[in-house]
Amino acid sequence: MLRPPVEPMLAQAVESVPGSSVLGELAFEQKFDGYRAVLFTPTGPDGAFLLQTRRGSLIHDRFPDLVAAAYKLPDGLVLDGELVVWDAKAGRLSFEGLQCRTAARGRRGMRALAASLPAYFIAFDILQQDGNELIGYPYRQRRLRLEALFALHRLAAPWTLCPMTTDLIKAQQWLESWTEISGVEGIVVKAMNQPYRPGHRGWYKLRRRNTTEAIIGAITGTMIRPQLLLLGRRDAYGDLRAIGRTAPLRPELARLVGGNVITADAGHPWEGWRFASAWGSRDVLDATLVRPELVAEISADTAIDRGGIFRHPVRFKRLRLDVTAEDAPLFSPGPSAASSG
Prior knowledge:
Layout: E1 10-13, H1 20-23, E2 26-32, E3 35-40, E4 50-53, H2 64-69, E5 78-87, E6 92-93, H3 95-103, H4 107-116, E7 119-129, E8 132-133, H5 139-152, E9 159-161, E10 164-165, H6 168-177, E11 184-191, E12 201-207, E13 209-221, E14 226-234, E15 240-245, H7 251-258, E16 288-289, E17 295-301, E18 315-319
Protein name: ATP-dependent DNA ligase
GO molecular function: ligase activity
Keywords: Ligase
C-alpha cells in the first residue's frame, strides 16, 4: 500500500514528439503550469486526506477547500496530478496565486485565499485504488481506471480529469492553440504500455516556445567565453528591467557573443544588483555587467511571472547585429512579455 512520501514519475524536456516506433502507441496530455502533487485519501477510519508535493512535503492544510471536497473521493485512493488555482478577477489560472496559497499561514488567511483563489486538482494518473497499488499496470489500464473513477463518482470541481488524446494532430493543435491560455504550457507524452516508475524520467514534455528578442545586460563566465546571458528590456521610462537568463551557451555561440560584448562603463543601470541563479532561488550568480547594446534572439516558453520574468532559462539562438537595443521589444509584465517583437 502506498504511503507518503511517494516520488512521482517525471518527464524530460524534448524538442519534438518521440517516435512511436520506439515507444509504441503514445498518449498526449495537456501540461498545466502548477505544482505537482500526489493526493491520498484515507485507508481506514483513522486515516486522513493528504496532499504531497513533488519533494514530499505535506501541504493539505494550506488548501481547506480541497480538504472540504475530499468526501467526494473514495477511500484508499492515490492520484498523481497538478495543483492549480483560479484567479477569478483575472479570469485565468494563476501560478502567483498558487504561490500565495502555499505560503499562507493561519486558518483565517487560508480560508480567505480559498475564497478568492480556489484550488483545483487536475488528475492525470491513478497509483492506487481501493488500497491496491496500480503502478505496475500499463498507462493504458491506469487511464481507463482514472476515467471510470471520474464517471462512476461523478467527480466535478475541484477535481478535474486531465485532457488526454492519442491523436497526434489533436495534440499538436493543443500545443499551438491551448498554450495561448495562461496556465497551459504544453503537452506531456507517455507510452500507453508504460508502467509507473517513481522517480524515473520516462515521460516527455514539450513546451510551446516563442521566438523574441532581449538586450544582453550582463554575463557569467569570462568576456571571451560567456556561459550565461542575463537579459533585459527597457520599460516605457527607458529603464532596463531584468527579464531572465539563458541556458548555458554552446561553445560556438559563446565564442560569437564573446567576440562582441564590451565591459560596461560606469553608470550601468544594473550596478549593485544581485542576480539569482534560478527563478525563486537564493543562490547568486557571479555576473559581469556589459554594455546593454547587443540584442539576443531567444526562444522562450510561456511560463512568465507577473513581474515579466521568464521562470525557466531561455535559449539563445543568435545575436541580432542588424538591430539596436532601441529596436528590442519593450518590457511588459505578465504573459504578454513572451510575444515576439
